[in-house]
Amino acid sequence: MKKKVSIIGAGIAGMSVGSYLQMNGFETEIHELHNLPGGLCTSWQRNGYNIDGCIHWLVGSAEGQSLYNAWNELIDMKKLQIYDHDIFYQYEDESGKCIRFYNNIDLLEKELLEKAPEDREVIRDYIHAARRFSSMKLPLGKPRELFTLKDMGETVFRLGPYLGLLNKWSKVSIADFAGRCRNPLLRKTIENLFVPEMGIVFVMITTAWMHNKTAGYPIGGSLAFSKLIEERYLALGGRIHYHSRIEEIMTRSDGSRNQACGIKDSQGKEYPADFVVSAADGYTTLFRMLKGRFVDSKTNAFYNNNLLFPSYLQLSLGISRMLESSASSLIFPLTQAVKIDPANTLSEIGIRIHSFDPNLAPEGKTLITALIPSREHKYWVNLRTDEFENYKEEKERIIRELVSGMEKRLGPLADYLEMKDLSTPATVIRYTNNWKGSFEGWIMTPSLGFRQLPLSLRGLDNFWMAGQWVSPGGGLPSALMTGRGVAEIICRKTGRKFKTESFNS
Length: 505
Known about the structure:
alpha/beta, seven-stranded mixed beta sheet, 35% helix, FAD/NAD(P)-binding domain, 505 residues, nine-stranded mixed beta sheet, single chain
């Protein structure tokens, strides 16, 4: 009789662990609170526009990388159409000066030295590290729980030439690295590469991936990508229960040990299982579904002391004309500051012009999106719950003022505006239940470095976690690899040799 595994969450992590377990002869069912797969890796339709809500780049998009091979176990990668951007993004100041942050390392070096010659040393450090990392091949590896001395030796051998750089730059945040710059334009460009608290090493590695064209964008957008993994999981015999909110992870005790034995949904229906995997929100899993019973002091400190990625508002505009730009991602000043929420006033905006993907807008038209970070999730949740009409009015005001503030740079927008949409942290929490609306879990700050949370909990057998809440830095690769790792652990526990099935193998 097949062993039964209940999986909470049909995001990339949940569908990954489910797919691998199906490949290895388990019976699995996924429970998802939304009516679509993907979690935060999603898109939505508005007035003929396909609004993309996630993928900026897919690490492992090209052959020759271990992550490509792993993705190819879930998706026929040869059928994906990948677009590689020439420019990571372009930063512009009030005077119209700009820096184009090229993905090609040679072009990037030339651009930075031309625009900020006084910061030659800072530029040299960044370019040197990115060039070195461009030859680094990350091993696919096993989950830490299954590592042997041999595995450790092989990892150190592969990464040995890069350990010095990894150690050096993981201790320096993006903000601190930018603070070394004398040129204000370069300083602002580096500050805006990603979340400023994150270690600069992760942006250096991203530049290396972009240079190698191994982190391109899959045409079609995020939901199309998620549905490909859903299709794979279902074809392997898995089942997904949508609109299924799980309230409790059931446990039983044999006197000396506790073990997970199933899950219970919000209607009180129980689903017995031999094993349970949560690929859902970490805080909800630990402190609500398990009532905090298996949270040790280290995990508790992790949740109390480490910094989360912020939540966000996403502005999406459908423009009934083509917008041309050599860089699809831009940051530029608004003509007037716009108050977003009590702690957030925007004087410049970062936008994405999605003309590189013909699937996102009707022909001859353009989708523009902007992600606006916010740590005011409570404000937005309370406003929507208690003052819904004011919530809608605030969204309309923000859209109106942002559109007006962008017209000097982008030309007339209001006259061509045929679709407008603004999601908020309240939206993120409603559809994904992510703690505080965070978009990728834990930030890999210099103090956190490469530390991970365990995939299992001390004192609870037959239960594991996968996804961004056990792998700081988040992102699609973390979801894939933690899901794959949990499946490998379950195979080991049940005495099975872990096997995978690739497309075109």
